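Narrative of accomplishments. A recurring question from our advisory board has been how the design workflow behaves on a single, concrete structure rather than in aggregate. To address it, we present the structure tokens for one chain from the evaluation set, followed by the sequence designed for it. No filtering or post-editing was applied between the two.
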């Protein structure tokens, strides 16, 4: 049971790299693919943790939602990196191998920049909060100015409305005086007035002049009301719009907005005022992008492994078998015989693969048995050496080791040689 667990731990990194553990061990590439698997797991853990952090900062979602999103994202990154590490290159050459970086770059660059942004929001939280407080103070002063402007606009509106009311009252008084003047003139002409004399005499002419003067005053008041009233209405509408805009701006300014976009704007102002913070922000961008690209870069710039060569050989053999089966089917007059030939070729290929698999398993078991026997042999040699040292130690006088006794003897001989 313990050997099974040890073997599972040993093969964990190999399986994380996407290759067959037995094949990697058979070709002597287990060490390389263990490193690849460790890099894949490292990138997966980093992607999961950073996504959890980003979702928590951006949306303030419950932990269950953040964990679910981060696990899904980590699983996707794990599968992509696993495919990149285990993919074999069809043709040699650095430029052709660099094409493996294209899909990973398409994911790493935007996600790295986004995660760096969220990370900066968390790192500079205190500075961002201070900037938000400064913005609130600036908004409060702007609100005070807007209130003063609104008061002035309201006073102007009241003055204009009072002026229009006065013009309307003047017109109403002039229009109300016309019927009385018209009635007095008619009564004087009909003989029912003060003179009791029928006909439009001198007194009627005077009353007619009063009537005409009243009509002229009414028309003048109407013209003033029409002209100036239209100007006042337009001015009042403009003042109403300005007052409404001031009220909207005041309502927006008084709202304490601490959302993600408000913090993003505050972060931009902090970066503009602090060059070192901007350098840290760019450094975080580079770090998160590079961390995502570590497995792909390791695969691209590593030499071609024997596992890749074996995969290429198997792929070429499968293509040759398919081409041979197609040629036999095309050249043979009997389609049934061609299908039988193709099936036999496929069975032979599968048999050869099974033999290779058995040989691979036997080689692995033989290697494990050799390692076990070598470890037992070395342990026995070490135990025998310790036993021999203990016996020699017991045989010496005063229980001193051999090395110390010889060193003391050499020192005594040197002192004797120096004594005259």
């Amino acid at each position: 049971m313990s050997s099974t667990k040890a073997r599972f731990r040993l093969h964990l990194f190999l399986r994380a790299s996407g290759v067959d553990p037995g094949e990697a061990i058979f070709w002597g590439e287990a060490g390389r693919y263990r490193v690849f698997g460790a890099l894949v797991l490292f990138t997966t853990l980093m992607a999961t943790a950073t996504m959890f952090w980003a979702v928590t900062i951006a949306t303030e979602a419950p932990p269950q939602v953040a964990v679910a999103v981060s696990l899904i994202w980590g699983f996707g990154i794990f599968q992509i990196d696993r495919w990149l590490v285990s993919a074999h290159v069809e043709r040699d050459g650095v430029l052709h191998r660099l094409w493996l970086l294209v899909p990973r770059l398409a994911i790493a660059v935007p996600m790295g920049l986004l995660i760096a942004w969220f990370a900066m929001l968390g790192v500079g939280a205190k500075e961002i909060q201070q900037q938000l407080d400064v913005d609130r103070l600036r908004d409060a002063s702007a609100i005070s100015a807007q209130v003063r402007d609104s008061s002035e606009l309201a006073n102007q509106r009241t003055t204009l409305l009072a002026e229009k009311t006065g013009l309307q009252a003047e017109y109403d008084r002039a229009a109300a005086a016309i019927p009385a003047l018209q009635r007095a003139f008619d009564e004087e002409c009909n003989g029912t007035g003060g003179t009791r004399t029928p006909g439009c005499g001198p007194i009627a002419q005077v009353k007619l002049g009063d009537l005409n003067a009243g009509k002229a005053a009414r028309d003048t008041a109407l013209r003033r009301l029409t002209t100036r009233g239209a100007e006042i209405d337009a001015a009042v509408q403009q003042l109403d719009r300005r007052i409404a805009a001031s009220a909207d701006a005041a309502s927006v300014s008084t709202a304490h907005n601490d959302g993600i976009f408000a913090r993003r704007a505050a972060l931009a102002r902090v970066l503009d005022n602090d060059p070192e913070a901007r350098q840290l922000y760019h450094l975080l961008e580079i770090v998160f992008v590079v961390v995502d690209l570590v497995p792909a870069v390791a695969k691209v710039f590593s030499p071609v492994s024997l596992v890749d060569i074996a995969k290429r050989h198997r792929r070429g053999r499968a293509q040759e078998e398919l081409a041979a089966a197609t040629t036999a089917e095309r050249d043979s007059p009997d389609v049934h015989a061609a299908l039988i030939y193709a099936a036999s070729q496929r069975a032979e290929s599968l048999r050869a693969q099974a033999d290779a698999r058995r040989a691979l398993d036997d080689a692995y078991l033989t290697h494990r048995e050799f390692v076990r026997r070598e470890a037992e042999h070395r342990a026995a040699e070490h135990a025998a050496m310790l036993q021999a040292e203990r016996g020699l130690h017991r045989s010496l006088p005063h229980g001193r080791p051999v090395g110390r006794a010889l060193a003391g003897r050499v020192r005594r001989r040197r002192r004797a040689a120096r004594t005259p």
